[in-house]
Amino acid sequence: MRTIETTLDAGGLRIGIVAARFNHLITRRLVDGCAERLGELGCESLDVMWVPGAFEIPLAAQQAARSGAYDALVAVGAVVRGDTPHFDYVCQGVTDGVRQVGLECGLPIAFCVLTVETVEQALERAAKPGEPGSNKGIEAAEVAVEMSSLTSRLRRDA
What we know:
Layout: E1 14-20, H1 24-40, E2 45-51, H2 57-67, E3 72-80, H3 86-105, E4 109-116, H4 119-125, H5 136-157
Parallel strand pairs: 1-2, 1-3, 3-4
């Protein structure tokens, strides 16, 4: 049995964050958490691309992936359930779209699009240091770096 190890070393990696402006209070916190963690992991090349809402994330991610400028992307958004089925359509569209881009382009994309029932739930998942909860942007940063490490290793070993 062979074990393929990954690292959380972002030195030399080029990372892009595609973030939805809608629900900016929440997405800004996620982006900040992600960027801070990437910096701690050694990332010195980070671009943040803002799009109007979560539904627009897949197209921007596709264009960023096709550009060849990035080793990994992070998709950041927050969709809060309302009184109409719009929530379901947006959540399904962004989820399917991001998955499709990652698979078609062969580029790791960490998924940090919150799909929550309330703003309070979103804030718990986008907590600032010292606040109760966690910041999913931090976790997404680690996912992007680890998956970039794994895909790079797999390509090199092929």
